[in-house]
């Protein structure tokens, strides 16, 4: 994981009845040993982390794990035990995150103001289950998608053009949120080229 | 590269004046030794491949290479020679594609009918410059994005809801175009859950 980047992961935690829970969570790599994440209030993940002060971060790209942990919960046979926590068996790698601090803050976004828990944790117990592990970062995908829109701008008009413009704003936001310096520089070039259609 | 998946690559070819040319191209992995790509008429890439009957496929994630090869061309110092071809120095891996067949077909898409060259090529001279090479496939990104929209559907209305719906159709199309069986199954689950908002 590279400093400053936000990765799409699946976090697994332990419920009060000792069963496992999992949810997709974006994890920011702060430095070699520290991660940060922002959790919306009201989820089992927040409650479990508040209670247990630790969680497992699963680095994986299995599409069904993302879908099922979002729509409901993963069935029991997806999990294996690590100490008193659970990780996801099919994960490429996982680590244990030990909470250093957890603070509730009010954050305003496009959907209004909500309470978010800012969790800072240090990293231990890193296990790789595949030789090559590349955690999921969305920045390069945003770049590729932005380039597609850019090269199509001469072909579109009306409703479609409006959609492309809206999507470009969103891509710009995402790349600057999840990407590194090189991604941000590349996105800036795309935005500059895009602005000639203003 | 996994059979059936489409990867985002940068293809480098040799111009008639022996200089190098590069452009982002989607490459479909047909089997262990064969790739397929669809090229729009009129580009240097098509002309060069028609003339030389071979091209280099660069597997990389360097955002600036994608941007600069789309907006204009890469400067000379980006390239190194392999036999009488050029590859991109910073690439994670590259291989030589030798054209087996090239056929011009008329294809209809959202922008109308255009002539596309279907290129089938076999693969040789595979070089890895990084120990771990994972070529760029957009399917998991579509899955993650689709899940974001799905979980936000209760929070949006009006114009924003319309955008989400439109984007979901597009994501569905992309995942089914570039993804494998597991991606398609996962996307089907997302679409089913999304349809409850119809």
Q: Brief overview, please?
A:
Chain A has five helices and eight strands; from the N terminus they run βββαβαββββααα. With 198 residues, chain A is α+β, with helices and mostly antiparallel strands. The longest helix of chain A is centred in the C-terminal third of the chain and has 21 residues, at 158-178.
What letter string, H or E per element, gives the SSE order of chain A? Answer: EEEHEHEEEEHHH
- Spatial strand sequence of the major β-sheet of chain A: 1-2-3-8-7-4
Based on secondary structure, the structural category of chain A is alpha+beta
Largest interface: A-B, 42 and 41 residues
Parts with pLDDT < 50 across at least 5 consecutive residues of chain A:
none
The end-to-end distance of chain A, rounded to whole angstroms, is 37 Å
CA gyration radius of chain A, whole angstroms: 19 Å
């Amino acid at each position: 994981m590279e400093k400053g980047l936000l990765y799409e992961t699946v976090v697994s935690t332990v419920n009060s009845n000792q069963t496992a829970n999992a949810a997709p969570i974006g994890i920011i790599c702060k430095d070699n040993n520290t991660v940060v994440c922002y959790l919306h209030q009201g989820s089992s993940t927040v409650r479990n982390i508040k209670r247990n002060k630790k969680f497992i971060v699963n680095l994986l790209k299995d599409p069904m794990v993302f879908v099922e942990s979002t729509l409901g919960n993963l069935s029991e046979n997806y999990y294996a035990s690590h100490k008193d926590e659970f990780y996801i068996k099919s994960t490429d790698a996982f680590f244990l995150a030990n909470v250093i601090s957890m603070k509730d803050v009010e954050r305003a976004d496009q959907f209004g103001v909500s309470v978010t828990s800012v969790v800072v944790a240090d990293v231990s117990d890193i296990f790789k289950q595949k030789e090559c592990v590349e955690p999921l970062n969305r920045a390069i995908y945003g770049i590729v998608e932005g380039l597609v829109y850019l090269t199509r701008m001469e072909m579109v008009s009306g409703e479609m053009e409006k959609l492309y413009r809206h999507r470009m704003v969103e891509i710009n936001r995402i790349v600057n949120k999840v990407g590194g310096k090189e991604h941000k520089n590349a996105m800036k070039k795309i935005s500059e080229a895009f602005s000639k259609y203003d």
